[in-house]
Every structure is written in C-alpha cells, then in structure tokens.
Sequence to fold (211 residues):
Amino acid sequence: MKFFYWFSLFLIPGLVEAQALTVTGIQVSATADSSAAAREKALDQAHDLAFERLIDQNFPEVPTALPSHDKIVDMVSNFSIDREKTTAKSYTASLTFQFDGTQVQDWVLQTNLSPEQASNIGVTNSGRGVDFKIKVSYDSLEEWQQIKKEVEGAFGVQKVTTLTLSPQSAVLEVKYAEDIQKLQRYFNDKGWILASQEEGWSLSRDKGRRS
Fold:
C-alpha cells in the first residue's frame, strides 16, 4: 500500500520551512550472529528501502542511482517501529520513516537539473499527434506532483518526460496523440490553464477558480 503524506515545501518564495515526508509499511528481515546484529542490519536496510520507495513513487524521473546510505540517514528526521519480531539470530520489523522535506527537495532538484534550457518550448509533429514541451508553474512540490499525475492521466497522453525541475517550475515533454484543444479543455476542467504564448506553451493554475 502506498501511504505518502506530502506537505508544501515552498509556502512563500524564498521561505522554506522544514516539512516531513512520511513513508509507512517498510518491511525488513535480516539474520546475523546475534539478534542485536540482525536488528542493526535490518534497520540499515530499512533506511535505504524507505528512501527508494519515496523517490520511486513520487519522482520516477530521478535516475536510479540513489545517494549513499550515510546521506540517506542524514535525511531521516525520525522513524518508528510499528511491529517487530526477534529471535536469537534474526530480526523482522515493519517501520515508518519521516524524511526531512528540505533535504529531500534539495537532492531531487540537484539530481534533476538538466543543461537543457526551457526556452525551446513548442509543438512539433511526430506522425500521429504531436510532441510538445510545456513550462509548468506551481507553488509547491506537492502541487507539482498533482499536476504531473494529471498530465500523465490525460486521455491521449502517451509519454511524459521531465526535462527540468526547479522549486516553482518544470519543463515537460509530452507525447500526445489527440488534438491539443482537447487537452486544453481537460486542464480547464481541472482548474489549470494550458496557453500558447510567444515563447511557447505554459501551464499554470487558474487563480480565478477554486481547485
């Protein structure tokens, strides 16, 4: 089961408050020469598994190479053991982890930085439908996750690739097999505006509507 609780990492531009990113249901099991050694081994595994799940399910565009174990440990603000079982040489547990949102955000943004600039935003034909790049504006990484899921879930969208990612904007490359007007109506129904501008396409929240 996927239980993630995301809080805004950017409440006001330039002002970042420490936020917790929670991952539950991390299952680990380990054996060693003693129960204490097995427990230590399992907890080390749990830290890495929790961070990997956090990234895989929220930032799948991040490369598979994760940070070092020590770096992951530094990003953990707290963890709790929900259930555990110990024998003379084994340890099994289910855990909940809380990661420091600011540190995770910094790592994600660093990892996703691309030399490609967002200035080349437009639409090109690719056989059936179009390929186009849009610059998405948002107020928080929580909102970014929401809009990314909505783009991926739109009818006719074949593929979505994140080209650049920053605290308040991202550039997506979208393979789309339908008419763009349909996509504009889709976003309008969800409270977003997909607009063609001089520099290309942009997607932003319709401030005049409640989501």
Q: What stands out?
A: The radius of gyration is 21 Å. The longest helix spans residues 35-58. Confidence is low (pLDDT under 50) at residues 1-18, 113-123.
